[in-house]
Amino acid sequence: MNQLKYIGMDVHKAMTVIVVLNSEGKEIAQAIIETKPTTIIDFIRGQRGTLHVTFEEGTQAAWLYDLIRPFVASVLVCDPRKILTQGNKADKIDARRLAELLRTKGLTAIYHGEQSTNAVKELVRSYREMMEDSTRVKNRLKALFRARGIDCSGSAVYSPDERKNWAGKLEHSAVRTRAGRLWEELDELDKLREEAEKDLTTEARKHAATKILQGIPGIGPVRAAVILGIVGTPHRFRSKRQFWMYCGLAVVSKITAEYQLVDGRICKSKKQPLVRGLNRNFSPVLKEVFKGAARTAATGPWKSHFDAMLASGQDVPLALLTLARKIASITLALWKRGERYNEQKAKLMHAA
Question: Is the CATH code 3.30.420.40 the one for domain 4-103?
Fold first, then answer.
């Protein structure tokens, strides 16, 4: 008989604790092994039956998913923020809890997969790291001047041509030396960022979806590559609202006392849900991409549509959010269908 087995793994840098349950929830095995490919695969291969594995999202989750997936029936990488933890906490207890929640379908999955876009995903991370490091150095550079009461608004302080003038505003040689090193670091990061951007866009061009994404207003080669690397496949999302949630563009509303008793009958309350702003559990990179695309489209191909929203009384942030949602919706729909963007269809959509 092909026995179902549910394997919970509590993964750490050096060691991994594993608990195996059968279909009735009885513990049939446990182990503490090194977090190494050979030991993990040896343990998995030593288990008979249909294997379902789970572990929490973390630094090693992507590597572990790709390692285990060929040897088991399914792998579920779960969201640790959505696991209700009560009572004692220890590695074996956590591993057993994961296995039990997997058996009872009580886990929220985080998407992993689409091996074909893994290279793009890694290059997106590299590009984002260079961008974030560059921003960090710029902030330090401006903080150096602001701490001495020197106004450094704008981007002139970063310009190689202006650096001699800016250095002259600093009173001590030690401070000028510090600023000089920050400028040198910024120059090196700019070179690395350009290289990372080139590698990213080159790899993304190997995928047919990139041409579809680049044709959408506000989405250029870099934004298209970032979307491809993070999303992987549009078929993860059943609807545009799910995609909005993932991109941080969905509005969260809350209501309490939804039902009330009227003349002995249970009726739905007429209270309106309270809007609590945008959802907070999202991909910040995708939110930045689509809001950036909205700003580009608002000054370009969709300027007339954007101006019309402002004329109707919408404020700028809400109008930009509306455009960002529209771009995200078009992205999901065209990517799923494998179609290019059509300006005439978009005009009909705006008119509606």
Answer: yes
